[in-house]
Write a structure and sequence with these properties.
It contains eleven helices and ten strands. The chain has 324 residues and is α/β, with parallel strands linked by helices.
Length: 324
């Protein structure tokens, strides 16, 4: 009899907790939600957040308030989100720099990119484009690889600085193509473009929004995109993966919550985000920013995060890449 009463008690508690979870999911949110962007206003991540915030607020029934907390390459804002109360009222819209690249460049970061966060939804990817001067003898990716192999150490590539996605895209290319190309870091790709146009720089893996206008105006030649498949963001430009199978490099964007964020809240936010990513107006804006909408489940996002971190860790370690 005592055992039977005990089992009834356990069942009652379980049902009560489940009911609480359902109520939380149905009532959440009951007040505005803070969406931390760990980068300055006006940048790609900020524009992405503001494109989503109004529509997601409509889906959630509460305002989604974008809060820029830049500093230390995005780690200050990410750390703030990691330490927030896991109730769904503080979220983080972040990128590969804070959760795939940064942790592998700086193991002494103030947060753990895996243990301290709950992945909610993979929002989108911003691929890059391989650009060369018009006077380059290479008109295809294969021709450029052949050209580099015939001239080891004589060619160079520009980047926007050490440890950036621009450098890592080039180093991943070098590793897969097995070529020796010298790195020239700049303080931003905008400063490298004139040298690329003049032929002082041999190649640059630039973002699509900044690189494609120079291609359309005839000042530079595009050899390939860093997506696995052709993309509408760069019509007529083939994937580098057609020559180097599996080659892929994107700046990804995603929403995180602090660890221990309730599953019901995760589902609520994920559902709203997926609905917004299918909105034609949002899709059009993101494509104009050079971002492909993705979406999907928290589990899919988690798998992608593990894959991206492993890929960049391998390149950073093998190529001895540092922030210095």
């Amino acid at each position: 009899m005592e055992k039977r009463h005990w089992l009834r008690g356990v069942c009652a508690v379980t049902l009560a907790l489940a009911a609480v979870g359902m109520v939380q999911a149905q009532s959440y949110p009951t007040k505005p939600v803070r969406l931390i962007v760990p980068f300055p206003a006006g940048g790609a991540t900020d524009l992405f957040a503001r494109t989503l915030s109004q529509k997601m607020g409509e889906k959630l029934g509460q305002s989604l308030v974008v809060e820029n907390r830049p500093g230390a390459g995005g780690t200050l804002g990410a750390d703030l989100a990691a330490k927030a109360t896991p109730d769904g009222y503080t979220l983080l819209l972040s990128t590969s720099s804070t959760h795939s690249i940064g942790p592998n460049l700086n193991p002494r970061m103030s947060y753990d990119a895996v243990r301290d966060f709950m992945p909610v939804v993979h929002l989108g990817n911003a691929p890059s484009i391989m650009l060369v001067p018009n006077n380059s003898p290479a008109k295809t990716v294969k021709e450029w690889v052949d050209y580099a192999k015939k001239n080891p150490g004589r060619l160079n590539y520009a980047s926007s600085g050490n440890g950036t996605i621009v450098q890592l895209s080039a180093e991943l290319f070098k590793a897969q193509a097995d070529v020796f190309v010298v790195h020239i870091p700049y303080k931003g790709t905008a400063l490298a473009i004139p040298d690329l146009i003049s032929g002082k720089v041999d190649v640059l893996f630039d973002s699509l929004p900044t690189g494609m206008p120079h291609v359309r105006d005839g000042r530079l030649r595009a050899l390939g995109v860093t997506t696995l498949k052709p993309t509408a963001l760069a019509p007529g430009v083939p994937p580098i993966a057609d020559v180097l199978p599996g080659y892929e490099s994107n700046t990804w964007f995603g929403v995180f919550g602090p660890k221990n964020l309730p599953a019901e809240v995760v589902t609520r936010i994920n559902t709203a985000a997926n609905q917004v990513l299918q909105d034609p107006e949002v899709m059009d804006k993101l494509l104009r920013f050079g971002i492909e909408p993705v979406g999907g489940s928290p589990a899919q996002f988690t798998t992608m995060l593990a894959s991206e971190s492993a890929k960049w860790k391998k390149i950073i370690t093998e190529r001895k890449i540092t922030l210095d």
